Queue: 4 jobs
Job 1
Amino acid sequence: MAQVLRPLRDHPAFSSPHLLVGVETRDDAGAYRLPDGRVLIQTVDFFTPVVDDPADWGRIAAANALSDVYAMGGEPLTALQLVCWPSEALPLEILSAVIQGGSEVMGRAGCTVVGGHTVDDPEPKYGFAVTGTAVKLTTNAGARPGDLLVLTKPLGTGIITTAQKAGACPPRVLSAAVASMVSLNDRASEAMISAGASAATDVTGYGLAGHLLSMLDASGAAARIEIGSLPLLEGTEDLLSEGFYPGGSLRNLEAFGGRLGGGDEAARRLVCDAQTSGGLLVAVAPSGARELIARLEEVGVSAATVGAVLEGRPSIELV
């Protein structure tokens, strides 16, 4: 997609004196300065089912779409629902359950669903276009050498959902993964703003490595990831060792593997695992990292320091 958009960056439709974040830095959402000084944040995300339960799919899709606004330090306001549905192949009662799940999470976020669009499609897809605002924008372009990297959700959803589709995921493992995916990043967003985050991104389809590399490209820095510090969902390592690994994660490994130094094959696969509704990856000064983790512990959100930002050409060293 970056290759497709690159020739359009100077096109009038992709530029404006009020545009704060566009396509150049591969950030989580677009940002536009309003006349009153506030920042308008816009994002869109939808995907095929990642779990069998339709309501859970709806909940996950909503949390995932909202996450981009939270990663920018914003507050979601409104959402448009996007539905692709094989009306002759799947009962509308299933779609109703999907929408009910999505609406539940949107309501929990205080985000108003104002409409949407539905098309007939042989493959079901569901998600949202979300609009929010921010007073102080947090982008992926401000990471500085010396910052620590804090991750606010465990990794492993790609591996776990792949095993679930094959009927090989223990129910307890899947339940924990779903609980992680439906949880909002709102409290993590509030805490990172209070802690003075330098930069942030959410960890989704490009995996930890891909989203961190976007941050490093935008910031002009390198990073170190401590494999032993990565929080993992229960069962992730076992399922990976059994050969469960999604196609999207393999594409990430092929795309980003050349910019990863060190680490064994399992470590490289973990950092490239495509996540759904993952946590925030926050670059913050050491004192801010301590404050961020402490604030999150107070509200029951686990977080871990997983590495640091370094001087150097944008790349990741796995240690």
Job 2
Amino acid sequence: MPKFCANLTWLFTELPFLERFAAAKEAGFDAVEVLFPYDVNAQDIVNELARYELKMALINCPPPNYTGGDQGFAAVPALADRFRRDFKRSVRYAKTLGAQHLHIMSGVSEGPEAKAVFIDNLRWAAAEAPNQSLTIEPINNDTMPGYFLNDFDLGREIVETVNAPNLRLQFDTFHAAKITGDMLATWAAMRDVTVHVQVAQMPDRTEPDHGTIDYPAFFAALDEEGYQGWVSGEYKPRNSTTDGLGWLG
């Protein structure tokens, strides 16, 4: 079976945030990810990771806009300077937590100028933090209306255009199913540029068990292909998190 990871922004939310690390370890996870950990003291997170011998697989970048703005703005031309300032903060945070991957969010934008700015920002970020693995993730427009990176072929094109060894794709099976209608075929086309996987079932973004996506087949394919990255549960539990962990096998 693949190496499974728990997204603590989505899972174990019946517990206070810092108690979710113990719950994840008890459930059998060896790694966690947290989308936006920035409002928590970094040392408190480091302590929980060490206490339960957990790895931090991924955090998002840039820090959230607490004034109600959109998540991410790496493809927003008017915010290029702000992205670069906030990216440096995210890298410091990722280094403190030992986060393997830093997900750079494009934000809401469109058109050739947005694409050019996104590529320019990613090239700068890859050079600014050469030892930090960076990811970009196609997100469907039902979940995030207007999100610039809303297509897997575009994601691949951008990764190949930037051509940096530390920039790869983040593959979310729910978004793949929503965007293309065929998650398994999309995975086959994107696996060579992918370093991190997130899973949820269609159509309700719940546990990756019964539903329209054949997860036993997908997990078997990951094993057969020798995929070495994390597979993170990023979904909305139907009931309590622990009650829905049968998909771990």
Job 3
Amino acid sequence: MKYILGIDVGTSQMKVALFDLDGRAVASATPAYPVYQPQNGWAEQDAEDWWNAAVTGIREVLHGIDAASIAAVGLGGQMHGLVMLDEAGAPVRRSILWCDQRTADECRRITETVGAERLLTLTANPALTGFTASKILWVRNYEPENYEKCAHILLPKDYVRYRLTGEFATDVSDASGMQLLDVANRCWSEEMLKALDIDRALLAKVYESPEVTGMVTEDAARLTGLCAGTPVVAGAGDNAAAAVGTGCIRDGKSFTTIGTSGVVYAHTSRMAADPAGRIHTFCCAVPGQWHVMGVTQAAGLSLSWLRQNICPELSYREMDALAEQTPIGAEKLLYLPYLMGERTPHLDADARGVFFGLSGMHTRAHLIRAVLEGVSYSLKDCQRIIEGVIGPIGETTVCGGGAASGLWRQMIADVYGCKVQTLRANEGVALGAAILAGVGAGIYPSVAAGCDRIVEIKEEILPVAENTEKYRKVYAFYDSLYETIKASYQALSKLEL
């Protein structure tokens, strides 16, 4: 019996999952680790915590399993985090994470130095605080002693790879989020590196996601229980790996994740970017292809905020039941889900959440319905822009915690106006990493073949035409609200009390 191992280096925990060759989960472990916030808006993690979690998780899932039966290891996980190592391979400082917001000034300097239009041409994305390049500049500006010590720059999952194999390597999907990759040509951009004065020697070798990047070393084998010589495949950033795990690897397919944040991700076989930079274009885990992606900052977060503050005694299922008794449009109550600013479509850190149309007749059932609809409209914003860039999306797979809600699944189908699917397995990133490992080990002839063998549809939900028409009217009003109050957001951010 052969197995494949998938590792997901998440922000709050690591998921290590062992699968058989048909994608059935045999064992999994989820060791957790802390996020450090030394200042407001900062977020850091200790790379050693990731490695310790990987060791713990691998040993746990291998319990009772012959390590020689592990065909390959695949890696996925959080993107953009800056990992700086010295000459000996030791971390110079804590990793600065994707959600860290300290680099607004560096982003402005990148845009001024490279030029906004040229930046989109080279990296397919505007400069954002989440990306890695601005973090590198921040360390150079404010911690020159640490920058001087730095000999290698990696991303979070790639640090785990380094500890497993001794190799400095990354993949094209994760590298796309560094803002240093020529996304169209799938290689480091010499023009970006020169413009930002970053030494190419600091960066890892770039691979396509299914390629083997190294073998488990004797030292790593002793710690983890894996066999020395087990292949470790390049893997992918979390969303690109999740796309493989959900079978979103062909044109016309997409997935919608309703987690703390919300993501609309669509596959494309041609390189295409939004001229306004409202969505991201990255290389995907299928060699020679790409994906476009929009992000809603506070998707599930909006519902959890409402539950915590308005109806803490209710379960999510009970909240669903109340919302289901409330008509579409929540009787003219709308919600803008900008609790954490917004990325798509507005790129506005000053945007804030709004209940619009609140009156004395509204109950918490209306608030719940309005939140579900508002998040759905925000995800519709992402879908609309993506379709404007790459063309129609025929179907979407819904995943993440929000996918557990039957009401929300139907709402997405109705708001998008397309078929929605759920899957038999909800292993996401770890399963995608494992499929890529299987391709690298020669078990599956291609990423598509691996997905076709493993990914199974559980449910299909079709849009209800009557509902779609009602949502269309409310969405048009929702769509007008941001521009109406945009100036007020900016004024509020400058208000001094």
Job 4
Amino acid sequence: MKYDTIIIGGGLSGLVAGVKLASANRKVAIITSGQSALHFSSGSFSLLSKVEGEKVSDPIEALAKLPEAHPYRKIGSENVRNLASDVPHLFAKAGVLLNGNASECHYRLTPLGLWEPTWLTIDTLAACTDPRNCPWRNAVIVNFKGYLDFYPEYLADGLNKMGFTTRCEEVTLPELTRLRKSTSEMRAASIAKVLRGNTLESLAAELLRVSGDADVIFMPAVIGLKSNAETDRLSQLVDKAIRYVPVIPMSVVGVRAESMLRRLFESLGGTYLLGDSVKSGDFKGNRLQSVRTVNLGENTPLEADQFILATGSFFSQGLVAKPDAIVEPVFGLDVECTATRPERYNKDFFGPQAYMRFGVKTDSDFRVSLGGKTIENLRAIGAILAGADALKEGSGAGIATITALHAAQRILS
């Protein structure tokens, strides 16, 4: 089978690149094992929240303070700005509506009641430009009886510090009785499967009963696993603002965003090979000719003119730490890392960790290298790139989406 581009990895970065290329009528395949960081997403996407420990108000302006090896510096500030403006439009095509812009951080409400700076946030989640001047001030925080992955008291404390008037309420529905028999069943994804159809009308009645004079309802983000239909319907039934707060994974809003992006990709003609992984590649000179997967076997190589590696970092095993080396397991690509094991980590658990900046070596165009030789038609994107500490910087989703669009743009040009 022959494609224009094959993308290895179907998380946020791989899907964004796939949608961009498929939108340009390219024949694209995404090969994914199904493990994605989107399943743990807060529903917000950070471009750059901190530099050297200091909070950032203008992410684009702060890019100049990053190390030269950082992925953003390779792309350039003006290109990052332009690509960042494209991200909400791409998501909107999938039906995922995002609020925010790259020039000014807004603030999202975290599960612990803190207000964290971010770039883009799904429109149904609790976020605003200035937490002290939100459009609503009188809040009711609603939880489901027996649901332990949501913390109303923490939220109330954080909201009260910003001048909100708050109270906490608990609701229940007969449809949730079975789930409450076990805390292992009373989880976000399981609740989302129940809160649909006529059950939403019962939930709306409960929300109206407990909300009183509140002008906003804060509740856990456990509604709408595959589309916006359920959240849209509940908003129609309840004549008050409803804002959702992320919960402990798995993330319903993250799974929903992934499902909607995947449907868009497939509607554009993309091939989505779920539950498979690449085990080897066939190289000729300085080009990758084809890849072979676990499911299709040795006798069915997948050929392409261009390839994109979007397998992530250590979390998704895009990088693997061995006692004597850090390796990229699919092709054995060159990796940017420290020479010795003691240099890889900081004994101060909360301090900067060197291994967070490890990743595959790339040139200025994100083309990878193998044995010191640049592979002309294989680019890396997202968390597998070297040079960024996404956790400390609050840059993970930004790097995933911006490098994906940049790589797709380079392929198209």
